[in-house]
Amino acid sequence: MSEKEFQLHIDDDWKSEAAAEKERLAQTVEGQEPPPPEASFSGLVQTLAMQAMVGLGGFAAADGRPLPPNPDLAKFHIDLLDVLEAKTKGNLTPEEKKLLDGILHELRMAYVQVISGGTPRPR
C-alpha cells in the first residue's frame, strides 16, 4: 500500500473543542464560575417554576433548614407562568407547550396542597 492510498485524516475541530473544554475546566479549578447556560424558553419556564417551588416550601436554605412556605410568592410566580402561557399561545413548539402545561399543573396542585395546610410532595 503506497502513501497515496493510505492517508490518515485528522479533523482539527476536536483540537479546538478540547482547548475550549480545558479552558472551562481551568476556570472551574481556579474558582471562576463557568458561563451561564444559553437563554431559552425552557430555561425561563424552569427559573419561574423554581421560584414558585421556593414559595411552596420545596427547598432548604443554604444551612439545610427547610424554608417555610410563602404562598403569596408561589402564587406570584405561578401567575407569571400563566401570563407567559397566555402570551405565547399558538407560538410554542409541542415540546415547549408540554413543558409549560406540565409545570403549571404540578405547581397548581402543590399550591392547593400548601394553602390547604399540607406540604408539597416532590414528584
Would you mind describing this structure in some detail?
This protein is mostly helical and 123 residues long. The chain has a domain at 41-115. 59% of the residues lie in helices and 0% in strands. The chain has helices at 13-29, 41-55, 71-88, 94-115. Helix 2 (41-55) packs antiparallel against helix 3 (71-88), helix 2 (41-55) runs parallel beside helix 4 (94-115) and helix 3 (71-88) packs antiparallel against helix 4.
Uncertain spans, ≥5 residues at pLDDT below 50? 6-10
Beta strands, count: 0
Helical content stands at 55-70%
What is the count of DSSP helices, taking H or I runs of 4+ residues?
A: 4
What is the residue-averaged pLDDT? 82
Give the overall silhouette: flat
From the alpha carbons, calculate the radius of gyration and give it in angstroms.
23 Å
**Beta-strand residue percentage:** under 5%
| Secondary-structure element order, N to C | HHHH
Q: Helix- and strand-based class?
A: mainly alpha
* Distance between the ends: 62 Å
Largest sheet: none
Which characteristics define this entry?
123 residues, mainly alpha, 0% strand
Short characterization:
The protein contains four helices and no strands. The protein has 123 residues and is mainly α. It has a domain at 41-115.
Question: Could you give the topology of this structure?
Answer:
Elements: H1 13-29, H2 41-55, H3 71-88, H4 94-115
